[in-house]
Amino acid sequence: MVHEPSSRPYQDPESWSELLAPRLAQFAAAARHEHVTRAAQELGVPQSTLSRALVRLEQDLGVGLFARKGRTVALTHAGRTFLAAVERALAEVERAAETVRADADPASGRVVFGFLHTMGSETVPALIRAFRADHPRVRFQLVQNYGEAMLEGLRAGTLDLCLTSPVPDSPDLVGHRLDEQRLRLVVPDDHPLAARRRVRLAEAAEEAFVTLEPGYGLRRITDDLCAEAGFRPRVAFEGEEAETLRGLVAAGLGVALLPPPAVPRPGVVELTVTAPRAVREIGIAWLDGYEDTPPVAAFKRFLLSRRGQLLPD
C-alpha cells in the first residue's frame, strides 16, 4: 500500500518558532522589547496572556528571568544567559522547519533512495532519468549499500525506500517484487567449462568460489542455489562488490555466481545456468505505516509502474 500525504491545512506562519516553541518565542520577544505590551502586540496575543506565560516559565525553571517595573521588564543575569541559548534554539527550529518543508515540496522535494551496488551503473541512473522527465526539480539523496544495511536504514528512518534483493518478508516492511535478474556462472576464459554456453551448477561443485560477504543478498542466493544443486560452495574469497569478484575470477582465484555486467569484462566467460533456475528477485521496500511526502509518493508510484520493465533484457 502506498501511503499518500494527508490533507492537513496549509500553514505558513511568519515564525515557525512561535508555532513550534511558543513559550521560548514569548520569552525572546519580551526580552527583545523589554516591554510586555509591545511584545504581546508583536506576537498577536493579549498582554495578560503573555504576562501569565512568562510567570509560568519562571516558575517552571525555578529562577527569575526578568526584573519588573510595571509593564517594563529587564533581563536578570539568569535571563541573559537563558536568552542566548533560546535565540540559538529558535534559529535552529526555524531552519529545521524550513528544511523539512522544502524536502516535502511536491515539485522540488527530496527522496532518500537506497539501492544495491550492482544496480548503480545502469539501472538506477536510467530510473532517475526517466522519473525526472516529469519531475525535473525533485532532488535525490542516493545511498548505495547491501540489502541488510538498507533494510536497517529503512527502520532507522534514514532511507525513504530502497531497491533490493531478495524482496524482504518482514512484518514491519512493505516489499514488492518488480523484476528478476538471471545469474550466470562466471569462469576464467581458460577454464575447462569456458567452451560451454550452458552449465548445470552441480558441475561447479568442486570449484573454489569467490562470493560477496555474508549479509549480502547475493551471497544468500549463492549459498541457497549451491545447496539446491547438492553442494556447499568452497569459498576462496569474500568481497563487497561484484566487479571485484569478476576481476578475481579473471585472475583464476575461482568462479562466481553473478548478475550480468554493465560492460563485458575480458578474461572471463559467463555461462547460463540451466539447473537450478538461477535468478534473483529485485524489489522495492519501505517501512510500513509511515506517511510519504509528495516526492517520495510520486517516485514510489513510478517504481511500481515499472514492474516487469525494471531491468534491461
| Radius of gyration, whole Å | 29 Å
Number of discrete helical segments: 10
The number of strands is 13
- The strands making up the biggest β-sheet line up spatially as 4-3-5-13-6
The whole-number mean of residue pLDDT values reads 91
The N- to C-terminal Cα distance equals 28 Å
Globally, the shape reads: elongated
The largest pleated sheet is described as:
5 strands, mixed
Indicate the percent of residues in helices: 25-40%
Q: Please indicate the percent range of residues in DSSP E strands (runs of 2 or more).
A: 15-25%
Features:
10 helices, 313 residues, alpha/beta, four-stranded mixed beta sheet
Would you give an account of this structure?
The structure is a single chain. The chain is α/β, with parallel strands linked by helices. 38% of the residues lie in helices and 23% in strands. It is built from ten helices and 13 strands. The protein has helices spanning 16-20, 22-33, 36-43, 47-61, 77-103, 123-132, 147-156, 217-228, 242-250, 294-305; strands at 66-69, 72-75, 110-115, 139-144, 161-164, 173-182, 184-188, 198-200, 208-212, 234-239, 256-258, 268-275, 279-287. The strands form four sheets. A five-stranded mixed β-sheet has the order 4-3-5-13-6, sandwiched between helices. A four-stranded mixed β-sheet has the order 8-12-7-11, with helices on one face. The longest helix has 27 residues, at 77-103. It is elongated, with a radius of gyration of 29 Å. Residues 1-11 have low confidence and may be disordered.
